[in-house]
Amino acid sequence: MLKQLLLLFTFSFPALAVAQPDLEKQLQTQLILAEDGDVIEWPAGKITLSNTLSLDAKSNITIKGAGQEKTILSFKNQKQGAEGLKVTNAQNIVLQDFTIEDSKGDLIKTQQVTGLVFRNITARWTGKPSKNNGSYALYPVQCQQVRIENCTAIGASDAGIYVGQSDSVWVSGCRAEYNVAGIEIENTTNAWVYDNVSTNNTGGILIFDLPDLPKKRGGHVHIRNNRVLRNNYKNFAPKGNIVGKVPPGTGVMILATHDVNVYNNQILDNKTASTAIVSYYITENPIKDKDYIPYPSAISIRDNTYSTGKRMPTWKNKLGFLFWLKFGRNVPHILYDGIQNPEYLAADGTVKPEHRICVHNNPNGTFANLKADKKFKGISRDLKPYTCH
Amino acid sequence: MLRFVLWALLSTGFGFFTPQPDAPKWQLSEYGFFTGNLADLSPADGVFPYDVNAPLFSDYAEKARFIYLPAGEKMTYREQETFDLPAGSVIIKNFFYYHDAARPEQGRRILETRLLLRDAKGWKALEYIWNAEQTDAVLEVAGAAFPVSWTDAKGKTQKIDYIAPNVNQCKGCHAYDGQFVPIGVTARQLNRGAGNEHQLLQWQKAGRLNLPEEFDPATAPRLADYRRPHDGATPDQQARAYLDANCGHCHNAHGPAGTSGMFLDISEQNPERLGVNKTPVAAGRGSGSRKFGIVPGKPNESILLFRMENDDPGIRMPELGRQLKHDEGVELIKNWIKEMEQK
After folding, report:
1. A200-231 burial, b for 16+ CB within 10 Å, e for fewer?
2. How far apart are CA A53 and CA B172, in angstroms?
3. Which of A63, B62, B178, B335 is deepest in the core (most CB within 10 A)?
4. Which residues 6+ apart lie within 8 Å of B153 measured at CB?
């Protein structure tokens, strides 16, 4: 019944000289009029849209396409709005079974949503990866209880799957390819990232805490059973963005975050930094945020498989070049910048247990403390201070 | 029949619109906000015009603004937040272009009328699109896009695909902690006019507004009218008024752009939060390869200005409601950044 009404509603404007194609208008009208418990089905076929589709202030809504590669929403000719699909101020929303591509800004942005599922979605920019692509393919921000399952993200000029300022997040079974960052967890608490493939990005998986944000601290992040492969793609982020500093050839990077556990992953053929643990100082950006803690702490890197072969680290990045100077073709897999928060030290000069960085049982995994605070002089490969788990 | 179906649909889809007189009308004329020829926008009883100090730029569209208050009801003044309007109130904003901006007497084309309706639960938006004959406007929840042309104040012909927002997009700006709120009905926007012409004092006299006894136009919040550079406001006051009206409704701690950590509302005093030497968070290509929101003394290195000057939907700011560059606004902010003290 509702559907017939909607159709009537949608096609009851013949007299208006409005140019929005009927289907676009129908999709948007459905989203506006959706009621609690509705399942909205998007038809198969390629749908061209000129404006952001948006869902606001709804509960218990499922939006379902006919399948990835079957229902394709294209924003190639977008005129208005930065996002492809935007979901805001909502509860219990399921998005599944469609492809969305080529928006001017982010592909799917969700903000202030509690209870959110992205399932079987392909979000991509077509064509060669370009700095003119939008920032994020899948972009939950300020959300709680987010599941991102079996999704594919391609071509983002920032991060393919980007979870920002959120809590309770599961990212699993996804594939991220040809993004600057494959998967990024930023200022987010309680995140589990597992069984994903992140490959051919500039950086595979990034766990960042950044300053100047309303949600201050991330942490309690588990990165396990992922395949982080050949993330050697050139960095095509527009300058000014923090991911623009990520060296091509980065596998997993932990920046200034607390309580991050990286285990049972295959981190292979990332040519510059298979795993980097760094403070915000490494970005050389100024820090004005007085509540911000720029140091990583309580980090565990264990039981991961590493191999890089005899690859040259990138020269297209200051750090990569420095690694080449220091290590040639034998860059250690696990790199810690060594910039230490004095407040994390006990009286005897050792790091307090709750702040330790632990590196344990990584077959083939080599390690170095870069001593970035000593201008990279006296680089140490001694694992002993980091033997804990 | 069709009318009935739409009616049924709207009263279920918009369950908050009961009883009859408060229900959404299919056509603008049905509300009776205006008397005589609708396009003349002559206010009926209970409807009165208002003006703001610092308007939002909307592709050079002109706006005719009105408030409807239910008979015998009053608004209540608040110093910082939106005025308290009684249930049943409606804020009415008409968007139009003069055929020739230099010769308003030659007539105008009204494009859309946006209504903000206040009921017991809060605020809702409805969007009406005017017909070509200018006899009425029809409800259009999904918005609309249509070509528009006019002659601008410099005599140049302007053509755009005018985009009227859908009701969700209305909330893209009109949100405070996720709740729908009006933007312009604040002391700082409405505190204008002198002597007997003072807007708020007039309303008080007419029984439309509760003003606190100690209200004094000279000390109450007031945004500079950035369109009148010779009004005595400093360039800083003008620029901050411009940013408050054009950016601050999203870019504040409670607004949709709160995630960026860049706050441009008039109350913000922390330079970093205003964007000074602040790195972008999720700007993507919106950064224009620039490093900081505002670089004092260097407008051409400031992301803020880059986004104001750009017309790409993925880059431009504001994100909605602007396709054309606002030359005067860009000039104002450019000079403001240029004059900012370099550390």
Report:
1. bbbbbbbbbbbbbbebebbbbbbbbebbbbbb
2. 12
3. A63
4. B101, B102
Min CA distance, B196 vs chain A (Å)? 43
Which positions in chain A touch B137 (Cβ < 8 Å)? none
Instruction: State both tokens at A317.
Output: 């990045």
Q: What's the burial of A365, exposed, middle or buried (CB within 10 Å: 0-12/13-18/19+)?
A: buried
pLDDT band at A17 (very low <50, low <70, confident <90, very high): very low
Residue B256 lies in a domain: yes
Domain range enclosing B308: 232-339
CB contact under 8 A, A212 and B272: yes
Average pLDDT, integer, range B40-49: 96
Is B287 a member of any domain?
yes
Question: What backbone torsions phi and psi does residue A56 show, to the nearest 5 degrees?
Answer: -135, 140
Domain ranges, ordered by start, for chain A: 125-386
Which residues of chain B are within 8 Å of residue A29 when distances are taken between CB atoms?
141-142
Could A136 and B166 be called an inter-chain contact, meaning their C-beta atoms sit closer than 8 Å? no
Report pLDDT digits (tens) over B220-243.
999 999 998 777 899 999 999 999
- For B316, list phi and psi in degrees, rounded to 5: -60, 150
Report which DSSP code applies to B165: P
Note whether B179 and B297 are same-domain residues. Answer: no
Q: Closest by alpha carbon to B145, among B132, B158, B129, B157?
A: B129
State whether B84 and B196 are in the same domain. yes
- Do residue B186 and residue B256 come from a single domain? no
**Predicted local confidence at residue B184, as pLDDT:** 93
Q: Considering the domain boundaries, does residue B212 fall inside one?
A: no
B185 and B273 in a single domain? The answer is no
Determine the pLDDT at residue B22: 59
| CB–CB contact B6 A8 (8 Å) | yes
Contact assignment for B168 to A54 by CB distance below 8 Å? yes
Residue of B nearest to A89 (CA): B178
User: What pLDDT, in 10s, does the model give residues B101-143?
Assistant: 999 999 999 999 999 999 988 999 999 999 999 999 999 999 9
Q: How far apart are CA A234 and CA A180, in angstroms?
A: 8
Any domain includes B224: no
B244 and B194, same structural domain? Answer: no
**Residue range A191-243, pLDDT digits in tens:** 999 999 999 999 999 999 999 888 889 999 999 999 999 999 999 999 889 99
A-B contacts (CB, under 8 Å): 184
Does B259 lie in the same domain as B192? no
Q: Do A238 and B288 touch (CB under 8 A)?
A: yes
Distance CA B173, CA B47 (A): 25
Query: Could you tell me if B178 and B266 lie in one domain?
Result: no
Task: Compute the C-alpha angle B259/B265/B268, nearest 5°.
Answer: 90
Peptide bond into B217 cis (omega under 30): no
* Residue among B163, B166, B314 minimizing CB distance to A105: B314
With a cut of 80, say whether residue B195 has pLDDT above it.
Answer: yes
> Which chain A residue's Cα is nearest to B272?
A288
CB contact under 8 A, B312 and A25: no
Looking at the structure of chain B, the number of domains it has is 2
Q: B319 CA to chain A: closest CA distance, Å?
A: 6
What are the tens digits of pLDDT across the range B157-194? 999 999 999 988 888 889 888 889 999 999 999 999 98
User: Could you say which DSSP state residue B236 is in?
Assistant: H
Residue of B nearest to A133 (CA): B285
Judge if B192 and B251 occupy the same domain: no
Q: Does the model's ipTM exceed the 0.85 cut?
A: no
For residue B18, pLDDT beyond 50? no
Which residue, among B224, B222, B230, B233, has the nearest Cα to B200 in the 3D structure? B222
Give percent of chain B with pLDDT exceeding 90: 78
